Structure formats: structure tokens, C-alpha cells
Amino acid sequence: LTSSFMLLNHSEVFKIIKSVMVQFVLLGFSELPDLQGFLPGVFSIIYVAILIGNSLIVIITRLDPALHKPMYFFLAHFSTLEICYVSVTLPRILVSLWTKDRSISLLSCATQLCFFLVLGTAESFLLAVMSYDRYLAICNPLHYPLIMNPKKCHLLAAGSWLGGMPVQIGQTCQIFSLHFCHTNQINHFFCDIPPILKLLACGDTFVHEVSVYIVAMLFVVVPFMLILASYSKIGLTILRLPTAQGRTKAFSTCSSHLLVVVLFFGTASITYFRPKSNHSAGTDKLLSLFYTIVTPMFNPVIYTLRNQDVIAALKRLFLKT
């Protein structure tokens, strides 16, 4: 963190500190007045389900010896990341819905955006690492235990968590160093880049939009291309397997991860790579709901219902209990 802030010049830091008391208003779902009494209960249930489902995966991968494998090591990190990722946005949404107070300070908004970007980047990297793990397990099974040793697994996990941190901290500070020219109302349910850029647009924001696209290309498109390359190799290897049973078993180990990749990268790509003219508040909110709330909610279901090892581990855990 220190090294990232050292990259900023003093004027940018001063602008941020000077604007700490600026208040934004997160409009959230104010355009749906009939659902204001319904939404808090729904989001509370979703949040509890996300916490319980992902925590269960973390617990069983730690306690069950049968799951002490690289695949489940990364799955435990992914579930932990999902808990952190959704906790950046959903508790703030619940507070806003319960208290009817939609205000958020500039510092809180910047902090939320920074954590959201850092954790989103970590998820993108971790999904790429998980696809690399499946590639080695299926395409290079004899050398798999040697390549994916514990030290390598820990390094890949640490790189996923920390890899995008300096750039995303710098990008957040760059965005919030701009002047505020328009309304302080953010037509979204959390502080995200597209709606914030609309507020900070004093004149031409082309340079800032280009920087956002470059960072998105680096942290979304590159990992996605690596995932595609891995699954292309995996697909060719599976097709060459001699038996249908072998092909089915090999594909089943990848199908859950592939489904999560499509859900996460699909909605995130549409959000950040759509032309500016096609952006609308309603569409942005709907897409954001998918990759910030819906996907983390379904991930535990996807990984348990489609994975016999996880189901067996859950049965052993509940039988012991």
C-alpha cells in the first residue's frame, strides 16, 4: 500500500484529503418504491446464504483430508474471496435499505471502490489460476504433483490476491482526484467506476476512460484469454481419451469452474466494455447484481452439486456433527 501511494504526487493526495467531507447519495433502488419493504429481507437472506455456503466450502476443504489437493486449496481461497467480495457492497446496501440513509462520504466511497476493484481483480486472477490447475491435472497428470506442489500453490494464491493491488489503488486515487462538477447523486447501489465517472466529468474525461479500459483489458481480458487457452487444451485432451466414462469424469472436474467463469466474466465484460452511449443506470444495476451478488450466491451450489468429492465431504462433516 505504501509503495502504491508513493506513486501519487502530493497534489493528488491533497485533493483527496481536502474532499473527505464531500457527501454522495447512492440512489440504489429508489426507483422501485413498492419494493423498499421487500428488498431488505431478500438481500439479508442472500447475504446469510453466501456467508454460510462459502464458509462451509472453506471448512470442509480444511478439515477433510480427501480434499487436501491443489484444486480444493484454490477453491477454498475462491470461497474466501467471494465472502470478502460481497461484503464490500452488500452490508452497505442493507444499511441503506434499513435506515433509509443513502448518503456516503467521499472517503467511504473511494474505499469501497478500491476494495471492490482489488478483490474483483483477485477473483479474475484466481479463476485463471484454477483453470491452469485443471489444465495441468488433465493434460499433464504425471508431472502434476511435482508442478503444483504446496509452495507453488501458495505463491499462485498470494499472487492472485495481491497482483492487482498497486494498480487498482492508483486508479482509485486518480479517479477521486478529479473535480466534481455535477450532482452528488450516484445512480447505483454501490460506488462503481461507470456511475462515478459521470459525476466527475468536468470537461473531457477521455484520458480517464482510456485508462479504465486499459486496466480492464489487463485484469479482465488477459486472464480470460489464458482461461480460454487452458480450456482449449483441456478440450482437445478430453476428446482424445479412449473411453466415454473417462471423458465424462474429466469434463465433470472442469464444468463447475467453467460455469463460474462464464457468469463472472460475461457480466463484468458487458459492464466495463460496453460503449459509453449504451450505458443506462437500470442495465448497469442489473448486470452489477449478477457479478456482485447473484454469482457469489450460486458458486457454492455450483461447486457442491456438481462435485462428488465435495458432496461426500459434506456428508462426512454432518455425520460427525
From TrEMBL:
It is a multi-pass membrane protein. One of its GO terms (cellular component) is plasma membrane. It is found in: Cell membrane. Keywords: Cell membrane, G-protein coupled receptor, Membrane, Olfaction, Receptor, Sensory transduction, Transducer, Transmembrane, Transmembrane helix. Residues 53-303 form the G-protein coupled receptors family 1 profile domain. The chain crosses the membrane at residues 37-60, 72-94, 106-132, 210-229, 250-274, 286-305. The keyword Nucleus does not apply. It comes from the Eukaryota. One of its GO terms (molecular function) is G protein-coupled receptor activity. PROSITE patterns: G_PROTEIN_RECEP_F1_1, G_PROTEIN_RECEP_F1_2. InterPro entries: GPCR_Rhodpsn, GPCR_Rhodpsn_7TM, Olfact_rcpt. Belongs to the G-protein coupled receptor 1 family. This is Olfactory receptor. It comes from Spermophilus dauricus (Daurian ground squirrel).
